Amino acid sequence: MPSDGRIGRRRFMEMSGATLIAAGAADLAGCAGLAARPAGQTEGIAWFARFGITEQLVADALSAALSRGADAADVFFQHRISSSLGLQDGAVNRAYASVSLGVGVRAVKGDQQGYGFTEDLTPEALREAARTAAAIADGPSRPGPSRFHVEGRPPQRYPMKLRWEDVRPDQKMPVLSELNQRAFAADPRIEKVSIYFADEYGAVLVADSRGRIVEDVQPMTLLYLSCVAGQDGRRESGGYNVAGRAGFELWTPERLDRIVRRAVERTTVLFEAVPAPAGEMPVVLAAGSSGILLHEAIGHGMEADFNRKGTSIYSDRIGKPVARPFVNVVDDATVEGARGAINVDDEGNPAGRTHLVENGILATYLHDEISARHYGVRPTGNGRRQSYQHAPLPRMRATYMLPGPHRREEIIASVKRGIYCENFTNGQVNIGAGDFTFYVKNGRLIEDGKLTRPIKDVNIIGNGPRVLEQVDMVADDLEIDEGGWTCGKDGQSVPVSQGLPTVRVASLTVGGRGPKG
Amino acid sequence: MAHDLLEAARGATALARKAGAQEAAAVASRARSVTVEWRDGKLEKVTEATTRGIALEIYADGRYGAVSTSDLRPEALERFIADAVALTRALEKDPYRALPDPALYRGQAAVDLDLEDRAHGSLTPARRLDLARAAEAAARSAKGAGAILSVSTGFSDTLGESWRVHTNGFEGSRRGTDFHVWAQVSARDADGRRPEDWDSGGARHLADVPAAEDVGRRAAARALGRLGSRKGGSARTALVVEARAAGRLVAALFEPLSAAALQQKRSFLEGKAGEVIGSPRLHLGDDPLVPRGLGSRLYDAEGLAARRFPVFEKGVLRSYYVDTYYGRKLGLPPTTRGASNLAWQLGESSREALVAGVRDGILVTGFLGGNSNGTTGEFSHGLQGFRIRAGALAEPLSEMNVSGDHRSLWKGLVAVGNDPYPWSPMRTPTLVFEDVQVAGV
Fold this sequence. Notes:
heterodimer; A: 5-stranded mixed beta barrel; 24 strands; B: 5-stranded mixed barrel; 16 strands
């Protein structure tokens, strides 16, 4: 369908479906034959040397970006090779591939930004993009760096054993065919199976006017199995997906087995579903992907750009109690192999673990360079961007709640009438008013302290700060979800992760159609 | 039309054939765009760039692959396409993949869609800034503007062009402009909430874009109208869905109309052609030939000559969106791959008159998240808007949800407004539904 295009300034998150998977093929790089390099950071320019990128070229671009008096400038090179294979109607009969190569140049004056980008990596095109960015300022030229250095010791959060450059399509195809057969074998009600297997590799290079330079080699892979089942003239669809920053070794027999089992279970259980209730009630969130609650209820509202502008419901609340003392929420770049892991952010800053809520107290916003300067704090490594076509923004990485003092069984047993949410497709938030939603694809009723009949397809709505106050039980079973989540903000999509222990929210509005029980 | 893009598209298909493909379709495109973002009295960000790329579909030995690249260095492109053909040949066969029947390329409408504003080149940086600044000034002059926390506005414009070339005879080009202006306003509520709302408009020609002042004023009025919102009670009630918001529901009704959804058994509208899906007020078609339309086109995403066709007539489903591939799988003749502009049979009433007509219910001014299950028709969305009491707008509502089933929702479509939302190709008017479940307190 046509959409309203760039004006939709929504903050949302969704499970990557087939349509979201960037396409590509591993052996389409146009650069095979070059020596394989380790993933992660490397000293100076390594990956991009193949495109003729030199420190001199980078220095010239930065000088041009500073030529009209900007305070600071950076360049962001990106080379991303995406591949995917699709299985439908029993055959691996479609392949997609894309190569994305380009550079963005940014000039910053105060909190104003000029941004230009180009797919053409020649010195002339780079200078032209830099001059476009430079025009944000209007003053005498400032000198750029003549030498570059790599800061700190580079971490390695996505070590790869089997690199995508070295994996041939005929190694991947049997994975899809076997999953397809097993899905049909798992349940006679399965009528259709679609599978997408995507992988991505490449690198980014960031250099700035302080003379910092860093490259990061960033893999990604995602496998999505969706199915349609039929029973008594009804049809239901469901699926399961797994994603991570890893090589081909991620796809172990155990993981593939889980994908089939959960996709089929989550689809066929829908036939037993009863209408979800309507109205306010206790909601128990299962460990794992329920972290979508944090992403929407607090994560976006803690992104410092909204607070710098005074438009978040969390503006002016740092240091104040927002939840019970056993509630701790972090945004973490360091979860090894997670879809939301990064070694370094897209402004070249080190990325670690940031406490949003520490012992119930609102602790730290998620910063990029501009907001960190505004608040006079160190950047938190949250400056991220979709691609070279975009200036960075404060964005989440892997957002989760630390384990708490309760047990899962005791939490479920504590609820007389409520619902239990297990599996989600998407969520959205209004940053300023604080209202957020998430869509529950699979869940169960809780009746007299027990999980009973399945429910499905119900949206849940709450208000961020009020819901945090209502988190009154947190279990010790934290699980970081392995799914392929994508977060959208201001028209930019970035990969993220999320997690949660089993949590009870004393009251949320459940948007069902059935009686409240 | 840019000859270099035609040459690039022809070149890509030739490289595909050289590498062993029998057939190929290529699109070479380029877009020049400028975006100016303005906030609270000063320029926030300017982004300006020209982007380009080639996309290629490959048909080789009964197999299919689709690739794209922005790395157009000649040696890299040749290698990329050769590798793409090799990858395609490694796949399993798919007898349903083929370029469209060339007969369907013929008969393009002899109309000037007028999609390019030739004055685009004379748009100056100062003019863009003036428009963004004017939107903010108007927002800040709104009644009650003292509660405004922040105003973000912006203006963007794009000139895009492309050539599509198929090895079985199709060559076509598009060239068009678009211009957008927007404003977003945040306000401070008494209890610490900071509700926000926005207004925007976009068009093919600068002269058709709404006045920046009107956009700013409307954004401020909408945001300030959210102050003091609260959650209403759970009920079955009438819903008046504002034209701007209605696109969400219509998109969910249209998604299951695609041949892909039908063939994959993910459509609650499978086998429903000729059946009653909605009330007689559900009457609309697909019209790709609207001059200056945001979704207008002379040929579709497969090169098929674009034509108008009915989708729903007096509530009866008349047509699906059928592309070549899934059409061949289903044994259905292709219509077109995706919606262009929607053309509604409008009602006679304004939004205000429709609100007055329902007496008691909810005016929905926006949805928040939620989803629709295209396989079953069930939906559930967050909503915001206003309570309607005695035919007039009363208190603002927030943190509520609406849920139902598209199989019954549209049968309860009791009125359609006279106010198609002009800034989206869906051109939805205000829609009034009776007896819908909302959840709240």
